[in-house]
Amino acid sequence: MKKTKVLIIDDSALVRRLLTDVFETDPSIEVVGVAPDPLIAIRKIRDLGPDVLTLDIEMPKMDGLTFLSRLMRVNPMPVVMFSSLTQRGADATMKALSLGAIDFVTKPKIRLSESIEDLKLDLVSKVKAASTAKIRKAVSPPDLMVPPKLDADAIIKAERSSPAREGTKVLVIGSSTGGTVAIEQILNKLPADAPPTLIVQHMPPVFTNSFAKRVNDLSAMTVLEAQDNDELREGVALIAPGGKHMLVNRGPRGYYVRVKDGPPVNRHIPSVDVLFRSAANTLGPNAIGVILTGMGDDGARGMKEMRESGAFTIAQDEESCVVFGMPKVAVEMGGVCRVLPLSAIAGFILNRQE
């Protein structure tokens, strides 16, 4: 069996030892080296030929983002970020994902041993997924930019408070590994009066708020981290907050979301299956479901339920996925009406509104 070769890049000797110990528990992973800073890492990449890097953000001599940006221009390869669970760490991680990192793992707080089992599951699964992921050069910022939201039409639409009318379509999206960039690319192509949109992206607390702010700056839509009882409005995308499940309900004034605590579903909170099942129960044929790149099967069962309730369902195709896991299972379960490349999904959704 060919092992996945990993190079650990982190300025903390304790973290380097911890990650080495974690990876050594899995016989399919081999730690071929460690590096305390990016300059040493450059030489070790050349000499050791790793399949995957784990990369800290704050390091001496060269920060992780600068190193990642240069790496992806010269020698693109799978990178999993090891990020602090802070607002600063979340903002930097969003930047890293936009630069081409495959995924990220959050550092346990204070006593590393307390979270070792969860860390082990997270690290090992994400490094394995990264080793098979498709690597693409990051899209340059000018390609992602849209006209600034300073025109009157955008301002008025962003302030509208009327709920979605009965029969109005609602866009429901679920994603995981590689999903942040995929969601950006879809929302960047949707206009300011796009259908109400609900999104679950597998992320911990703090990171979802940072992600929502980033996509809001790039999109003509208004993109927000969801709060309990938020109404669904045209031109507004709501992202489920990390550590909470998001469901869609219908009340006297129209559709709204519930944001609630609960156990992880498919090992995830928020879970795509939870959102999709609520969409099947509440929206029926008024929903358009989209399942994007990601490892595992979260969302596949819920998408099948959505299709059975009359919703139109779309899966991202294998070629454009970073990891063709969640969409693959959804297709195999019979929950998908149409398989499309990422570049075609936004246009297809808009055409179905006409």
Describe what is shown at a glance.
38% of the residues lie in helices and 21% in strands. By secondary structure, the protein is of the alpha/beta class.
Structure overview:
By secondary structure, the chain is an alpha/beta fold. The protein has two domains: 4-132, 3-Layer(aba) Sandwich (Rossmann fold), CATH 3.40.50.2300; 146-353, Methylesterase CheB, C-terminal domain (Rossmann fold, 3-Layer(aba) Sandwich). It has 13 helices and 14 strands. The protein has helices at residues 13-23, 38-48, 64-74, 87-99, 116-132, 141-144, 152-159, 179-187, 207-218, 272-282, 300-308, 326-332, 342-353, and strands at 4-9, 29-35, 52-56, 79-83, 103-106, 170-175, 197-201, 222-225, 236-239, 245-251, 254-260, 287-291, 312-316, 338-340. The strands form three sheets. A seven-stranded parallel β-sheet has the order 8-9-7-6-12-13-14, with helices on both faces. The longest helix is centred in the middle third of the chain and has 17 residues, at 116-132. The radius of gyration is 20 Å and the shape is elongated.
